[in-house]
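Kindly draft a polypeptide, keeping tokens residue-aligned:

***
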Amino acid sequence: MGGDESVTTATPDAAGDEAAPETDIEKDTEAEPTGPPPRRRRLWPRVLLGSVAGVLALLLAGAGYAYWRTDQALDSIDRIPDALPSLPEEDQPPGAAGDAEVYLLVGLDAEETPEEGPAWQAGAARSDTMMLLQLSGDRQTASVVSLPRDTWVDIPGHGDAKLNAAYSWGGPPLMVETVQNLTGIRVDHLAVVDWTGFKELTNAVGGVDVDGQHMNGEDALTYVRERKSLPGGDFDRTRRQQNFLRALMTQTLSADTLTDPGRLGGLLDAVGDVVSVDDQLSNGDLRGLLWGLRDIRASDVHFMNAPVTGTDMIDGQSVVLLDHEAAQPLWRAMRDDEMATFLTGDQAPAELGDTVR
């Protein structure tokens, strides 16, 4: 045959079969995929969402527990039936202006009250302390005015007598009616405080600091009860009670109490043993009150005594005479929700000082 002819050769494979003929262009690599490269799955969004969900779950659980714990404490507060006067509207003094509210705080000493039975029994005990608490409508300030227990007043249905006799003769409603007639201010709610119970409350917050001295519950109880050794007698005792309440409020609102679960739980448990309120205050009302006072600090609460002209002897009794003329601007400022302005003026009574005998 003439000329070289290119021939195709075959190479046997491992099995001895003939392999496919080799071509001039060998494709020994796989075809590259077409389209965009696959994205890596990112984990951080899921991690972040999971973390947020976990935090929210903890916050909700904590909020739920706090709500339950608070509600449990509020349930333990005794409600006093028919504590407010059942008088026709036209026989009641006007209420405080706007959203301002007025509370009457009545202090009882458990040494003088029966251990068992109803909260009030005719003739069983006289109230030891009377304070009017006015909360401003914007809930930025509060004012506490003490009424001396020996103030000579007209008690409806009984005539002239010492103010604290009203509780003995007619219980909470007669006490409220007497104070309303004396001041011309409608009392929105009543709270009866057991001074002995404050011993447990003081211990629950870890004690209080009064005039440079750290007091436990027993010390505090002795402090607020003392009267005979004080130069001003009941007047000085009233100042001590206000001073103690101020110190207790300072400690209660401190981070040491509010962020310590043990102290906060003890505080909530002690509340029901200390305070009774009128039956018009529901748990929701009390919770709303606490929420409304969340921004108030001890420095925003002003303590003072009602102005008096002095003491006298009437019917063989040592009594306190209220200065009605000087008191009228005070009662008007409380009723008109103008205490912030009134306390900066010349007619305001002296406020509780930094130190007390």
